[in-house]
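As noted in the main text, all predictions were made from sequence alone. Below is one such record, for SSD domain-containing protein.
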Amino acid sequence: MACCHTDCIEEPLSKLFKNFGRLVGSHPYWFLIIPILASAALGSGFYFLKDREANDIEEQFTPLNGPAKQERQFVKENFPYDELTFSSQRLYTEGTYASLIAVFKSNAPTNADFQTAEFDGIINLDKKVTDITVRDGKEQFTFNDIRANRNEKAPATEVIFPGLNLSSEFGGIYRNDSVLAVRLFYYAQEDDSSRKAHLWLEEFLKFFSSSSTINGVEVSYFTSLSRQQEFEKNAEDVIPLFTITYFLAITFSVVSCMRLDCVRNKVWVAAFGVLSAGLAVLSSFGMMLYIGVPFVMTVANSPFLILGIGVDDMFILISCWQQTNVHDKVEERLADTYKEAAISITITTLTDVLAFYIGLMTPFRSVRSFCLYTSTAILFCYLYSITFFGAFLVLNGRRENSNRHWLTLSNTIQNIGVTTAVMLLISLLLIPNPLCSLWVTFSIASVIVGVAGFMALWDVNLDTISMIILVVCIGFSVDFSAHISYAFVSSSKPSANEKAVEALFSLGYPIVQGAVSTILGVVVLSAAESYIFRTFFKIMFLVILFGSFHGIMFIPVFLTFFGCCGDSNGD
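Prediction:
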């Protein structure tokens, strides 16, 4: 029975990409230089990085207009805060404060003896805290200048309940009148002097970070800024991992693309493929910073992700390039490469981008920023793959035609419901067979179920961070299956078995390369101490593992059993 084909879009796009490949092949230097200049121009947006940082925990990691915020607004309107009669019980926020716990090492003071040396140490400790001086320009101030006002004539009133004698109900009661620790609070004003309060809190942290024992009293401390500072420090700890990641990616790409033939070696091609992904991150992030999109700590995950996508596209292009006729002109070789590979890359790019754009509908600002930065970076990665990287393929092809050693190249070049439906729609439009598109969609659902199940086995909670990665999962899980399905459908072999063999022969190794390179791109996050980055690694590892397994094992088997996905029925 004849099968329905939906190649009304796929065939014109293939011709369009073939013509575009011929254009890039004819003018490679333009397509090499323009992305570099664009990256340099857009990359200057990192100048605004400090201004765009937005790591406020409540603002970024709580839902917009959530019930808690509405209830707090109700309390704020009905129980307004009075600066003149401060009471911590009437605060509708955490407040601006410093606190410390002083622990006595020995001979704890008792209620009967308040003049012990240990208690004198507490008095001296309190005096040291209140005497901490901050210099702000020509002005200097202490805690007494910013402390919250307390009207001693109007103390906070507590609800007094009737006394209840329960002594007859309990036996063997042990009473202890000693004190092992004392907790002190220092609340600052919540008005226009909040900047001074933050400066004083920072000085407070510096004072106690140098010593944990003062006058024989062991001190533990915390401020309203501590949690925020630790949160921001997590992002700073990950920055050195970028260098390690790109080094691993370049090393793996170079090693996997090395050949014994010193002329047809693809060492520089692999290096420029990784560089293309780096330029995509630089351009996209710079543009977002120029526009004014907040830079949240979760966005720091994106470069690791983009590196894996860029290297994956690179391996697909290299594989198709190597299947072209070496005796053809480089312009025609690139045209044939784009005809075979560009549609596959376009499918995965569209599914990834749409998955992230759907994530913009979430009420969490941190998720919105992450999705916007990452989706834009994926688009730039796609554009640079078919321009910058394609242009370098042409230059490398010219070197090969000139029979020059690969080392001489340096003389030529100096440098989940809705989302799944969208994936199905894109697959139906670009994979010229509806049944194959259904198998790709089934693969997506299978990967999501597998990832969700192993999340439970790997002690990954279903929280905001894992939700972000699950959204990513829907887009990434389609990549490997889409590559194999498109190659299977496009094959001219007569039987389904031969189609599957040709698809795996052409794309099996690039898929393994892409999977390994993506895992290498995020493996360094497993060493991070932050829960966010370790969770990101775990879920991405599962996504890539299950996605590649489906693309290489399940999809070829299913397509072979249902041979009508090809041009003719299989055996």
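Residues 111-115, 152-159, 409-415, 566-571 have pLDDT under 50 and may be disordered. Strands lie at 97-104, 134-136, 139-141, 181-187, 213-214, 217-223. These features were considered when defining construct boundaries for the mutagenesis experiments described in Section 2.9.
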